[in-house]
Amino acid sequence: MKHILIPTNFSSSSWNAFEYAINLFKNEQCIFYMLHIDELRNSDIQGNSLMVMTSPKKISTKENLQLLFKQISNLPSNALHQFIALEEYGNFIDLVRKTVEEKKIDLIVMGTKGTLGIKSSIISSNTGNVITKIACNVLAVSENTIIKTPSKIAFPTDFNLFYTYSILNSITEILEISKAKLDVIHMTQSKPNFSNSQVINQAYLDDYLKELFTERHSFNHILGKNVRDSILKYIAENKIEMLTMVAKNLNLFQQVFFNNPVEKLSYHTSVPLLVMHE
């Protein structure tokens, strides 16, 4: 059984992420934890005094969760899926990390607001912090992502990392669930000149994929002046429907998601992003 955490602020983006997740895992036995985290000042407890705040709230978290579960009840039923509401107050990252540990979460699904186009490309700070600060696989889903099972998944890599069991298992899981084809893509600014370790890592990944997904994977070496632009162009031209990357591959990750060291995490497409952690 998979344990999937979906932080929600009751927005359209978090609902779209939820719908995407239940469609993706429609044939898998899952527990979905719907987690709402609010600031401490909005809780009913003031400090350690246990005094109930008298100022009325327009709609309480409990009422919002009830409305959310009413929405869920209107979706086609699936006996494989179970839904649990969680309500917390405090620091977002600390509480997500605590929930991941306590509930043995396999995947966090985050909604991102907006088109994520060139003029609106910043992933919300919560999503960016979850991706970079919590050691759990994260699926970031844009508000405008179409609800469908991906048929083509791209995996950008520079072959500098050894592919551990956890990474290979994550790739295997998403390919088995989606039945998608995997495009392994290597972007370079000039003709690739691989080190011995890169050659070994590529061969190891190729052997693994040949054994399990013989007809459903390919390796592609693409030249381009800018790695991020090359990946986005590849996504558009090859009708890629999900992008997956290894969080530990910091060099490539920074080239794709950061223009400079102080820039916020950026992502310029509505294609879902699966970030894999070891």
Automatic annotation (TrEMBL):
Organism: Maribacter aquivivus
Superkingdom: Bacteria
Membership in a protein family: Belongs to the universal stress protein A family.
PANTHER family, alphabetized: STRESS RESPONSE PROTEIN NHAX (PTHR46268), UNIVERSAL STRESS PROTEIN UP12 (PTHR46268:SF6)
InterPro entries tied to this protein: Universal_stress_UspA, UspA
UspA domain boundaries: 1-141
A UniProt-annotated Pfam family: Usp
Protein name: Nucleotide-binding universal stress protein, UspA family
